[in-house]
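Researcher: Last one for today. Full complex below.
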Amino acid sequence: MTLALIAGAGALPAALVAALPERPFIAALDGFPPEGLAPDLTFRIERLYPFFAALHDAGVTQVTFAGAVRRPRLDPALFDAATAQIVPRLMQAMAQGDDATLREVIALFEEDGLAIAGAAEIAPALVPGEGLLVGQITARDQQDAARAAAIAEALGRVDVGQGCVVQQGLCLAAETLSGTDAMLSTVAGLPAALRPPAQAGRGLLYKAPKPLQDRRIDLPALGPASVAAAAAAGLGGIAWEAGGVICLDLPQMQALAAEQGLFLWARAASSGGRA
Amino acid sequence: MTLALIAGAGALPAALVAALPERPFIAALDGFPPEGLAPDLTFRIERLYPFFAALHDAGVTQVTFAGAVRRPRLDPALFDAATAQIVPRLMQAMAQGDDATLREVIALFEEDGLAIAGAAEIAPALVPGEGLLVGQITARDQQDAARAAAIAEALGRVDVGQGCVVQQGLCLAAETLSGTDAMLSTVAGLPAALRPPAQAGRGLLYKAPKPLQDRRIDLPALGPASVAAAAAAGLGGIAWEAGGVICLDLPQMQALAAEQGLFLWARAASSGGRA
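Model: Here's the assembly. Have a good evening.
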């Protein structure tokens, strides 16, 4: 069983490779070079079937997606005949949003005989189960996490984002296209008068998969940079859906959170608390 | 029947007063002075019942709320005995979010014999009915408005905000605590590479009331500044739920939109199009 990693942008692909017992075959989408990894192959969506053939030639039977990609711009001149046939399918899926697009891409790989493995499946150590990993949480934090989980579910159900920031019941920011770091930098820039007084609860970043997404791809991710950005935004900690979020370099995240006085909480999806 | 306007921040209270046949009694929350209006009375939440008494003394029987207020910080030393009795009710409502807080405030006024009138009721000219008011919309704009309406409904249902920005099906930003202007300035600051190419659709700002809110208070508002901010964010126009959004100075909004090449579209809540 040979595994190929389809590596997007960000730190996740390299973290995943480091967590695997042996180096996988590494492929990257043209224009989205992975950080700290040398791809064995670079491919374009316009030539998806030649790419599938190259994977088969390399003995690949299983594929994992990791890292961010944005909608690539397609160049009509580059299509091969087989890939051109599936353009209407792709276009229709893209018009329905990111979830639909990813489902369609998964379907294309599977139809070609390539099994999709989730990051959580091949590197379970990166996806912490339930528990308070660093620091302390208050009743206020529990209420904020419950409210944030309800908001993230609503946002996810309309395919908008995988996270939000809540302080004392108020939603300070919702994740959209520009991602978690941009959301946290928005929060850091909020006028102090807009935010409730910190002594009654500093608020938290919350992340969770979208309710309708295929959990084999595009799980939300956290890393040391998220901890630093949450601290810079004046938050009290980070909570996330246990078993549904990838943590890049958890030891480093824990060290940084302890140093900054933040909690890290892998929260059970079924946790109570007023939403 | 004497009307009192409870005036919050922003341009809405003055616009409302200008649209009324005669000047109402004007009250303002301490710390939130209305723009361009001299209040007849300034009140504090801690002394709500003395404020009610003052309204009755002035012959007020009907009250309209207009303009933004944020959660005021309460000073325990200022409470009168009657108002102190309702603190637990207020606290419980505030813990449940802005919608619940506003519902509770409305209930307190009504229990004291003061009727609540919506801005749309006393100044219907400020709340345009269905129609394309300026410019042209494409099929892409119609799809974006339908998707934005679905996102705004989801956000509103969890009491987060009353608007979002959608371009070619992608949610570029969702309105939270910091409001529409902050959301549009976030969009204006997005890296160009994150946004889809403008020639396929410039995207739109969409606003609508929250599904569960009392439409007598806290209707979303648009004004000339919204048009300027939408233009600065590179959007193609503004759409909103017809009959559910207050337009401050519609002639000025229309002139500015025409000048900037933006559409203004009061869209029927039941409009079709793929969400």
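The mean pLDDT of chain A is 92. The longest strand of chain A covers residues 60-66.
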